[in-house]
């Protein structure tokens, strides 16, 4: 089984022509592998910041005993997080290469030759979550950003990745902790009547009840956000249902709207036995909703029907 400290590598940008491409590395032995891959830009051995230093962007050159023998001198930089302050809570490097798909592939292959392995899907996010750098909602939002098909889905996913719901919950937690502190202070200093006594907030039932109700309202709002984040069954898309009596053309309409023969169409009633879903796109090709074709309502069919497999 793969370890959560293995040295892993993966492209962070698409393998296509661009000004720059990025490859991310993290795990045990990272510093040693970087020193075998690169020299400093002036040709001296690569110097990396220690654990107490902040992240640094370092201009480097391929080591002549590595990719330098084939690719020569190219403008390459390494953004290096040396310690727990980084996005994974451990040393991480993002290597910025010229935007060549073949160079990116060669670099990943060379890194694997030196002891790294290809990261599994979501493994960098998993390590960030295990290190406490992101919460579970933000980790899920990374997948939602990747899978987003509409501007609305992308906007929702980016808000979640930035900690939208998690931030609200954390704010409520701090609010409740402050309220508990006020109550404890009122208990501890209730009998202190000296002129210089510590001021105690009012903690009567009339004072506390509105605050508790406020928290309940906010939690209801958060619950609604969580319940609605996957509304429509696919990443927040609204769902439109075609429902009606059997054999009135629902499936024909469904096929026409989604632009393909997704639903079986026959003259016999009861052709559609289960719901079928398809994406409905607007004239610009943007997915606008999830269209659902239901089985006919109010009609029965014989179990011996020739359509039954």
Q: Give the helix/strand class.
A: alpha+beta
Dominant shape: flat
- What's the CATH class of the largest domain, please? Alpha Beta
Largest sheet: 7 strands, mixed
Counted by DSSP, the helix tally is 9
The CATH superfamily name of the largest domain is: Probable tRNA modification gtpase trme, domain 1
CATH architecture label name of the largest domain: 2-Layer Sandwich
In N-to-C order, the SSE pattern is: EEHEEHEEHEHHHHHEHEE
Low-confidence stretches: 300-309
Distance between the termini: 42 Å
CATH fold category name of the largest domain:
Gyrase A, domain 2
Q: In order across it, which strands form the biggest sheet?
A: 3-4-5-6-2-1-7
Quickly count the domains: 3
Strand composition percent: 15-25%
Overall pLDDT score: 81
Provide the gyration radius in Å: 29 Å
Tally of strands:
10
Fraction of residues in H or I helices: 25-40%
């Amino acid at each position: 089984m793969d370890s959560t400290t293995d040295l892993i590598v993966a492209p962070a940008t698409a393998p296509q022509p661009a000004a720059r491409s990025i490859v991310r590395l993290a795990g045990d032995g990272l510093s040693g592998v970087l020193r075998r891959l690169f020299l400093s830009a002036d040709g001296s051995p690569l110097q990396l910041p220690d654990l107490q230093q902040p992240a640094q962007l370092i201009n480097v050159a391929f080591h002549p005993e590595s990719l330098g023998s084939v690719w020569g001198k190219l403008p390459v930089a390494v953004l290096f997080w040396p310690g727990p302050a980084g996005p994974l809570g451990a040393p991480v490097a993002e290597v910025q290469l010229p935007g060549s798909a073949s160079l990116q592939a060669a670099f990943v292959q060379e890194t694997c030759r030196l002891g790294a392995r290809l990261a599994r899907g979501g493994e960098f996010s998993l390590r960030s979550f295990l290190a406490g750098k992101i919460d579970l909602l933000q980790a899920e939002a990374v997948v939602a950003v990747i899978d987003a098909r509409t501007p609305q889905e992308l906007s929702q996913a980016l808000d979640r990745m930035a900690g939208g719901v998690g931030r609200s919950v954390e704010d409520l937690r701090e609010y409740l902790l402050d309220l508990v502190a006020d109550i404890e202070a009122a208990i501890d200093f209730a009998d202190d009547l000296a002129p210089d006594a510590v001021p105690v907030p009012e903690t009567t039932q009339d004072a506390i009840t509105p605050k508790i109700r406020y928290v309940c309202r906010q939690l209801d709002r958060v619950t609604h956000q969580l319940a609605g984040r996957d509304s429509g069954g696919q990443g927040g898309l609204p769902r439109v249902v075609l429902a009606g009596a059997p054999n009135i053309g629902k499936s024909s309409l469904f096929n026409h709207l989604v632009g393909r023969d997704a639903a079986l169409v026959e003259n016999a009633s009861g052709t559609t036995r289960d719901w079928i879903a398809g994406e409905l796109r607007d004239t610009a090709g943007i997915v606008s909703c999830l269209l659902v074709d239901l089985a006919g309502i109010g009609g029965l069919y014989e179990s011996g029907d020739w359509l039954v497999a």
